[in-house]
Specification:
With 323 residues, the chain is α/β, with parallel strands linked by helices. It contains 13 helices and 11 strands.
Length: 323
């Protein structure tokens, strides 16, 4: 198991995100995923910078950290040809240490140009075509593509990395996990559900990396952490299709109004007890994940990074050394 760090674009201004990435590298994290949103989930989170600009800053401030988007939707708000160019530039600036995480997106971000929000099966179809088109463009040839969802006329990418760009595909259900196994170079999930990993494997994912996101809130006391998680990240406790379907932060706030602090604490590891973090990380390992990236909710990124450097990273580095 390798531990990584979640760079939370919904919560922090862009220069702070760059600082967070640099501090994560200093603490000993080997990789990070940065969220790609147009809106935060709720207004209280307060930020949502353009991820591709932030990645340029991270490239300039880090030397070893592997960085991926967690995750980009290359289907509606941004045409896949533009995502292909952006990803190629990021990979050139982060040589050998960038990957593109993709998913079918959320209405929260994808409705902003007035486009229709498609049903899930159509979103998966669009994602598959988008990934095929991006890989075609990454070959560096003059490309014309006339597909069901996207058209490209005489396009060529001139700025390309020396190594192929890996595409990690996110999934929250079995059909998306199957798609990830079939078209992806790896898998991204947000819950330690073995059934999803098995669906990924059965569709061709065996031997490919699996990244799981764990949301936590470190603080000096559990009470303080629970309060912060409830105020800033109540959306963690929303179940079902709401995360994909609600279009506005105010709608998420309304839905979160039906939750309690205890509801959020059931889904977010809160407080200073390292054993609780290890238990949650190990649940991902038991489900078949080999990477876990940890999302610290709230402003105290320094406190969490010191805690991780002291309590978490050595534990898993020793486990890897004895594996």
């Amino acid at each position: 198991m390798e531990l990584g760090y979640a760079i939370s674009s919904e919560e922090h201004p862009p220069l702070d995100l760059v600082d967070d990435a640099a501090r994560a590298e200093e603490a000993g994290f080997g990789f990070a995923l940065i969220s790609d949103h147009f809106h935060p989930w709720i207004d209280r989170q307060g930020s949502s910078p353009f991820v591709w600009g932030v990645l340029g800053g991270i490239a300039a401030r880090t030397e070893r950290l592997r960085v991926g988007t967690g995750v980009t939707c290359p289907t509606i708000r941004i045409h896949p040809a533009i995502v292909a160019q952006a990803a190629a530039t990021a990979a050139t600036m982060l040589p050998g240490r960038f990957f593109l995480g993709v998913g079918t997106g959320e209405n929260l971000n994808e409705h902003v140009l007035g486009d229709r929000w498609p049903p899930a099966d159509l979103r998966r179809e669009m994602l598959e075509e988008a990934v095929d088109l991006m890989r075609e463009l990454w070959r560096g040839d003059l490309t014309t593509h006339r597909g069901r969802h996207y058209t490209v006329e005489g396009a060529r990418l001139y700025t390309l990395p020396d190594e192929p760009i890996e595409v990690m595909v996110a999934a929250g259900g079995s059909k998306s996990a199957e798609l990830a196994g079939r078209i992806g170079d790896g898998f991204v999930g947000t819950a330690p559900e073995r059934a999803l990993v098995e669906a990924f494997d059965d569709a061709g994912g065996t031997g490919k990396p699996r990244y799981g996101q764990l949301t936590v809130c470190w603080a000096e006391s559990e009470q303080q952490a629970r309060r912060t998680a409830f105020e800033i990240w109540p959306n963690a406790a929303l179940e079902g299709p709401l995360a994909q379907e609600l279009p506005l932060p105010s709608h998420f706030e309304a839905a979160a109004g039906m939750l309690t602090e205890g509801d959020v604490a059931k889904t977010v590891v809160c407080g200073p007890d390292a054993e609780r973090y290890a238990e949650a990380i190990d649940a991902f390992a038991d489900a078949g994940y080999d990477h876990v990236y940890v999302h610290q909710v709230g402003p105290d990124q320094d406190g969490f990074l010191r805690f991780a450097e002291r309590e978490l990273l050595p534990r898993y580095a020793k486990a890897a050394a004895h594996a």
